[in-house]
Write a structure and sequence with these properties.
globular; mainly alpha; about 75% helix
């Protein structure tokens, strides 16, 4: 009896210790998140390049804090926060100079992504050269893909090929380029829907780099993204003629192509064909079909397919739930969509940006501004930071529905979180504020943007200039002009930032 009592006591002690360790681990994790948010806010708020960033980094991030994971998370947050790319580069350079810091491919790739997104290509090449000399093992196919994709997007076909050649001859020294590198080059054109260029590269280089099934799927995906279903089917048959056997990725691409064009019956036919040829459907296959059912407003089939996930012993993720959520929204069944969102929460399936974006769209159409304001408040209470596309959509909706106060609240929330909202969001907010004669607040938001090293658009400048002159606030006009001139001298501008094209693909890749 004594033995059992002692054993029970020891077991209770073990359980207590385990629970205590879990609490400590959770607290430590929360502490780290708070610290990351603090550092991101400090970097984003810093008036670089007017003042050097390095002394602040020395003071706020002493070398012992520079763990691999910590730096990766800070850089990831800077990317999501639309920070000035040169600030992220300053941070990464500071880390590289520390003997205590061990750089990772992920940190390098995030810095490269931030620089190329803002078209700082000279700095991006400078970073690559620095890594080549000091940490060549960090050079990966992903870093090559980031650079080539951005060059393909913003520069010419010839410049993209030159960049590929430069990487082969001067960067990836000692690496013999083969099919994997060729696939990266093809993907750069395909992700930008430049299929003529992709075809040209394929025809020009396939004899040197023998294609594999991944090569063919990359091209097939490119034709799908360009919206040409005939080209998708023609190339699929070309794959067969070249001796390539389709895999589940091939089928997923074709199914998605048919779903996006509203040919849901053809997509289901391919789904059934997969079973006949022993090509197992994946969670992605079924998720695509659920979304396709929603596009043709066949909610019964969408629910049936969602149940099939469990039947096939697969685990639904945010993507699967979002597909069903989208189907319910398209069928105008907001009540069921809200219930599904609650179910996600109960099952610990994360509400991501697509979840919120989809729900906001549905509530905008059915419940109007009051419904949107309610979901917006819930999102903020959960400390969720929406991505660019959702921020721009909300800002526009708030301002168009005479709730510019909510637009200003969203702006303040993002800034407090260490984010520098996209310039298109600023365009909408400044327009809304000026239309309601709240020029001081419009000026304040614009100044916040420029203080963080980001350009404002000509639209914002001209609007503020006109209203401030009418108000006799000539000192503010002069301050605005001075800040803009400094930024133009110190920082290269880009069409994306001066006009404000809210591309969401950039922010969702991290």
């Amino acid at each position: 009896m004594m033995y059992l009592t002692n054993r029970s006591s020891k077991l209770n002690q073990f359980v207590h210790i385990k629970q205590k360790l879990s609490i400590i681990k959770l607290y430590s994790s929360l502490e780290t998140e708070v610290e990351i948010e603090r550092i991101v806010r400090i970097i984003n708020d810093h008036p670089y390049p007017n003042k050097p960033l390095l002394p602040t980094l020395h003071k706020q991030i002493p070398p012992p804090l520079l763990s691999t994971t910590f730096v990766e998370k800070v850089l990831g947050s800077l990317f999501g926060a639309h920070s000035n790319g040169l600030k992220a580069y300053e941070l990464f350079k500071y880390c590289l100079h520390s003997n205590l810091y061990k750089p990772s491919s992920d940190a390098f790739e995030k810095t490269l992504h931030i620089l190329t997104r803002m078209r700082y290509f000279d700095k991006a090449w400078e970073l690559i050269e620095r890594i080549k000399r000091a940490h060549p093992s960090l050079l990966t196919l992903k870093s090559m893909s980031i650079m080539l994709s951005r060059i393909a997007k913003f520069k010419s076909y010839e410049e993209t090929l030159e960049a590929f050649e430069r990487m082969e001859k001067n960067v990836f020294i000692g690496t013999k380029f083969g099919t994997n590198e060729f696939n990266v080059l093809l993907r750069a054109f395909c992700t930008q829907r430049q299929m003529k260029e992709a075809r040209s590269v394929f025809n020009k280089m396939h004899s040197r780099f023998p294609p594999d099934v991944k090569t063919m799927n990359i091209l097939l995906l490119g034709f799908k993204e360009s919206g040409d279903i005939t080209a998708v089917e023609l190339f699929y048959h070309e794959m067969g003629r070249r001796g390539f056997k389709p895999n589940n990725i091939t089928y997923n691409i074709r199914i998605d192509a048919y779903c996006k064009k509203g040919h849901f019956g053809d997509a289901l036919r391919l789904f059934e064909e997969m079973g006949r040829v022993n090509c197992s459907p994946t969670l992605e296959t079924i998720t695509t079909l659920i979304h396709g059912a929603g596009l043709v407003r066949n909610i019964t089939k969408a629910k049936e397919l969602f149940e099939e996930i469990h039947i096939r012993k697969l685990e639904p993720d945010s993507g699967a739930y979002n597909a069903l959520l989208s189907s319910l929204i398209r069928s105008k069944d907001i009540t069921s969509a809200i219930t599904l969102m609650d179910e996600m929460e109960k099952r610990n399936i994360e509400h991501d940006n697509i979840t919120y974006h989809t729900m906001f769209l549905g509530i905008m159409r059915s419940k109007g501004i009051d419904g949107v304001a309610k979901l917006y408040t819930k999102m903020i209470e959960r400390n969720f930071v929406p991505k660019t596309r959702t921020v721009v959509m909300l800002m526009k909706f708030f301002c168009e529905n005479c709730r510019v106060d909510l637009g200003l609240d969203l702006w303040d929330y993002l800034v407090k979180k260490g984010h520098c909202p996209h310039s298109h969001a600023l365009d909408i907010l400044v327009t809304g504020l000026c239309a309601r004669e709240r020029v001081e607040e419009a000026f304040g938001c614009s100044r916040q943007m420029m203080e963080r090293g980001r350009h404002v658009s000509e639209l914002v400048f001209q609007m503020l200039e006109r209203f401030l002159v009418e108000m006799g606030e000539l000192e503010k006009v002069e301050e605005l002009e001075c800040m803009m001139k400094k930024l133009k001298l110190l920082l290269p501008s880009s069409r994306e930032h001066s006009i404000g094209n809210p591309s969401c693909s950039d922010t969702e890749q991290m």
